[in-house]
Amino acid sequence: MLTYYSKKKLRYMFIAFGALLFHLFGGFSHLFSKDFDDDFDYPYEGNVKFLVDQMVNGAQFDPINTYYFKYKTNCSHLCNGPVKLLFIIKSAPENYAQRDVIRKTWGSGNNVNEKIRAVFLVGERTSETESLLKESIRYNDLVQGNFSDTYFNNTIKTMMGFKWACEFCFKHTEYFMFVDDDYYVSPKNVLKFVENPFIYPGRDVRVEKYSFTDFGTDKFELYAGYVFHSSPFRSYFSKWSVSLQEYPYNKWPPYVTAGSYVLSRLSLMRMYYASLFTQHFRFDDIYVGILAYKLEIEPIHNQNFHFDKKPYNHDYHQTIASHGYNDPEELWRVWNEENP
């Protein structure tokens, strides 16, 4: 029989085990997180919007956040003339077949009257160095940085795209669409969408009050895609676990999933400037959402940017982008059925 002291000890062990599980699944982190709505002040704590406003008007300030990468290839020729839409495609070094089929389908711009260009962002992978060099020489559409191409370097890759676009394509390009290389995209629908994001099918009905806005690419701060309103994962067992030291707030700012989003020229420039004064964060979609929040740019949701894969059917005529096309043959087939 268990003695009184044995029962007491066992009870304490159960309490300790429960507390450990509560900790490992992020319970204490949730309890001690700061309230986003009242306390959000992600570093830099100053008025980033004010600094960006000044920079747009020609002022210069020393940045607090700098990404120390160098271009191995930069495709500076790509936007020498007017470009309506530039696809900036985040790609893994080994995904040659996916890049090849994108060049032949939605990245070609052959099915629209407007001028479209596509560029691929890659980092370094030792095993792919020689093959990437050959690909770059052949197609001249790779922007490669000298950083390791890993999942948690996606923010570096994304901000390389922002910096490169501001340096080489800003003057001549109206819209910029960041896309992962496992997406189907309809350039025709992207162009229809940017004409007026608030009347395109699948819009958020709560934003109809903006239907008379001037959507000029130098006047409207467009940041659009599939918008999330969510909270950090605190569980130690999650790939996306975030500590309170890294991000102490109980919610993320509204953000567009990183797989596909569209920016106007004005948004691209202002977000890049804001990144110079905003501390790095390892999840690129969250980081871009933080930049937008600091600039008071409201993300625009449209359900025709599909975060999950949309099975191919007759409704694809309104689809702007769909995730899940990591099979090049499937992308080729769907593209040709939609664009006979």
UniProtKB/TrEMBL annotation:
<keyword id="KW-0808">Transferase</keyword>
<keyword id="KW-0735">Signal-anchor</keyword>
<keyword id="KW-0472">Membrane</keyword>
<dbReference type="GO" id="GO:0016757">
    <property type="term" value="F:glycosyltransferase activity"/>
</dbReference>
<dbReference type="GO" id="GO:0000139">
    <property type="term" value="C:Golgi membrane"/>
</dbReference>
<protein>
    <recommendedName>
        <fullName>Hexosyltransferase</fullName>
        <ecNumber>2.4.1.-</ecNumber>
    </recommendedName>
</protein>
<dbReference type="InterPro" id="IPR002659">
    <property type="entry name" value="Glyco_trans_31"/>
</dbReference>
<comment type="similarity">
    <text>Belongs to the glycosyltransferase 31 family.</text>
</comment>
<keyword id="KW-1133">Transmembrane helix</keyword>
<keyword id="KW-0333">Golgi apparatus</keyword>
<feature type="transmembrane region" description="Helical">
    <location>
        <begin position="12"/>
        <end position="32"/>
    </location>
</feature>
<keyword id="KW-0328">Glycosyltransferase</keyword>
<keyword id="KW-0812">Transmembrane</keyword>
<dbReference type="Pfam" id="PF01762">
    <property type="entry name" value="Galactosyl_T"/>
</dbReference>
<keyword id="KW-0325">Glycoprotein</keyword>
